[in-house]
Amino acid sequence: MSTEPRAPSLLDALIPVAILVALLAASVNLFHDDSSYGPNQIALLLAAMAAAVIALKNGHRWRDIEKGIIKGISISLGALLILLAVGALIGTWLLAGTVPSLIYFGLQLLSPGLFYAASCLICAVVSLSIGSSWTTAATIGVALMGVAGGLELSLPITAGAIVSGAYFGDKLSPLSETTNLSPAVAGSELFSHIRYMLWTTVPSFVLALILFLVLGLGIHGQADQARISAILAGLSGTFDIAVWHLTPLAVLLVLAIRKMPAFPAVFIGALLGGLWALVFQGPLVAKLAGDDSLLAALKLVWRTLYGGISVQTGNVTLDELLSGGGMSAMLNTVWLIMCAMSFGAVMERTGLLRRLIQGLLGAAKSAGSLIMATIGTCIGANLLTADQYMAIVMPGRMFKEEFERRGLAPVNLSRALEDGGTITSPLVPWNTCGAYMHSVLLVSPADYFLYAFFNLINPVLAVIYAYLGVKILRLTPPQQDSNP
To answer: What residue ranges are annotated as transmembrane (predicted)?
Structure first.
């Protein structure tokens, strides 16, 4: 005769979290920059085991816990496929001259003093157009990181600018998955949701741009023109540089705008990059393949899809800019995401996460404190479940009834889900978004955290609005939603 599992106590819920925090702190302290390459994964698995032991103590069966882990990992499979496709895309776009051409033109057009703000703005426009922060970072973002290296600018600040712009556009684009998911969970209408988000999103972005402009004020003369000239010469000497090599990028943007799913769109972009390399980069392909035959060239492109590209020019900076990519480069991130999702799945499946949140509802007496509790829960879910979709769906389900009971319009909830869930996801190193940005930009979220100004300002501004009562919409019977 089976019995229902016991409800977890608050102590039960806190123990795995405390273990995870302690292990992650020890990981960073002991392994420093290498903490994301194995130590963090072990910390997440040990914390997941601790949560599972507590669940077993409360009467859960291992089979049910295991099913929860499998379901949790399955949620991330789409992201993992995209991640592998992005690795292939970066490799072939390097070989095709697409990224080198973007770097070449960027070094000529972007001045050091305006670079951080311009990077943020460029990424915002692209992400708003295509609705994908991931695609923006993997294409324009990779090129901008290369330009920053050429201009001898801070890579963490550049990464922060890219993340800020990419998530601003992603958050407001009607093509974005999270922008559609949040109102669907909360019960609001898409364009009402977007209009309501403008009140917190636009001021936050303007403040971020101002901060990036301030950071650029003192670096007008920092760039070494001789060094930039050497990099430009190295680029043109190694690759055929031309505007038409940006065609794979243009095709990918069109596919994204036309709402093709991310995985096939990115993989088509990767294959097009391989074709472009065969057609336009013949001398380089023959040199890297060690043979000028078609078979050797095809073998090189195949290898680039999974192993990336390594270029030796004699210029160390240029070699770093032009080498990388490949699906294999993403495998560590895949490992990190799977371990993080395992921990989050155990916490969610066994009721430990819900127990952590129960106290928040009791403490949230006013509309402002309820919105703050929602944003805080989204941030906590990003930390504990390691996935931005979970950080939107779970708090949305938990707080929806309370928002309705207090007469608050659904757009209040949907905006809070984005302000807390979507925006903070790339700031967590073991979150799917943070791990992805690390793999693509090659800068850890721990390093760019303080410079992702938009992602830091937006949740704070949302909480300030909530407590001041700014743009808190009430339900007016019989209307169930309101336009801001």
So the answer is: 12-31, 37-56, 77-96, 102-130, 142-168, 196-219, 262-280, 329-347, 359-384, 448-468
